[in-house]
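We give the chain.
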Amino acid sequence: MRLAELLPIQLTETIWRKYLTEPSVTPVNDEMPMFDPLYGFPEGRPVVQPKLTRDQLNENNIPANYRDVCAFEYLRWKQCTDRKTIGRVFAYECSADQMSWSECKDRDMVNRYKSYERERRLLKRRERILNRLAKEGGGGSE
C-alpha cells in the first residue's frame, strides 16, 4: 500500500482523536508547533529547503498545489513529458523523473507525519507531567 493511499486513514484517525478521544493532546495542523523544533536535537535538525526560488516557480508556471520542496522534481518531470511526448503517447520515457517526484512527495509526507507525531507525543508528555504535579500538589494540601 502506497503512502498516499494511507492519507484518508490518517486523516480519519486524526479527526477521531481531535474531537472524541484525545482533544487536549492532538496537534492542530494549521497552527505553528507549540514546542521548540530543536528540542531533543542537540546537534540541530536537518532543514529541508526547496531547490527553486519563488521567481523560478512563477517563471515555469508551476501550479500552486505543487509549490513545495518537491517542485524541482515536478518541474523536471513536466519538462521531460513536454519534450519527449506527443499527446502523452511516450510518457514512459519520463518514468524515472516521475518516480523521483513521487519518492520526494512520499519523503515529504513521512517527514510531516513524523513532525505531527513528535508534537503529539510532546503534548502527551506535558499532560502527564501536569497531571502528576496536580496529584502531588492536591495530595500535599489535604
About this structure: The helical segments are 3-21, 54-59, 71-84, 95-141. The mean pLDDT is 82. The longest helix spans residues 95-141.
